UniProtKB/TrEMBL annotation:
InterPro entries per record: Acyl_CoA_acyltransferase, GNAT_dom
Residues annotated as domain N-acetyltransferase: 9-165
Lineage: Bacteria, Pseudomonadati, Bacteroidota, Flavobacteriia, Flavobacteriales
GO molecular function: transferase activity
Lineage: superkingdom: Bacteria
Keyword Signal: no
CDD domains the UniProt entry points to: NAT_SF
Class in the EC hierarchy, top level: transferase
Keywords per UniProt: Transferase
Name of the featured protein: GNAT family protein
E.C. no: 2.-.-.-
Length: 174
């Protein structure tokens, strides 16, 4: 049986009470460059998103889960996106909102839990991640879990009057 529970925390579906956390995260301009966000989200729009978060991954082509610590606090989000059941692949992304909650094993564990679900539960063959060249923590995280660098998108992200490269990581489940 697949588990979304680890030693440091667990993954769970979005709940209505996550509105304030989602509002804070989605409107944090420091993470806009990794999320592709260019304008703030209203609570109304985020509530509509939460109202539709129950949709099946096969219908929505994405899955967003909350990363919770052992104290049951939501500290981040982890996503499967561009879900393609025909080609058995999906993108994966992760964010832990507060600096104080990082480097405690939660991100690594969350990524492992979602990988297990993707490979064993959804029968995907591969996952990929897009990471900005200066996101050393994410680069370290994906390398630690045996994702391979398979490409580099030059001048891919334009933020703060500067272009940044994006690294493409891939993990194939053999």
């Amino acid at each position: 049986m697949l588990s979304l529970k680890g030693i440091h925390g667990y993954l769970r579906a979005l709940e209505p009470e996550d509105l304030n956390f989602l509002y804070e995260l989605e409107n944090n301009t420091q993470i806009w460059e990794i999320s592709g966000t260019t304008t703030p989200y209203s609570k109304h729009i985020l509530q509509l998103y939460l109202d539709n978060a129950h949709k099946d991954i096969y219908e929505a082509k994405q899955l967003r889960l909350c990363i919770c610590n052992s104290d049951d606090n939501v500290v981040g989000l982890i996503d499967l996106f561009d879900f393609d059941p025909h080609h058995h692949r999906a993108g994966i992304g992760i964010v832990i909102l507060e600096e104080k909650d990082r480097n405690k094993g939660l991100g690594l564990e969350a990524l492992q839990l979602l990988e297990n679900y993707a490979f064993d539960g959804l029968h995907l063959r591969q996952l990929y991640a897009n990471v900005l060249e200066d996101n050393e923590a994410s680069i370290h995280l994906f390398k630690k879990l045996d994702y391979r660098i398979v490409g580099e998108k030059k001048d891919w992200i334009f933020q703060n009057k500067k272009y940044k490269d994006e690294i493409l990581f891939q993990k194939i489940n053999k």
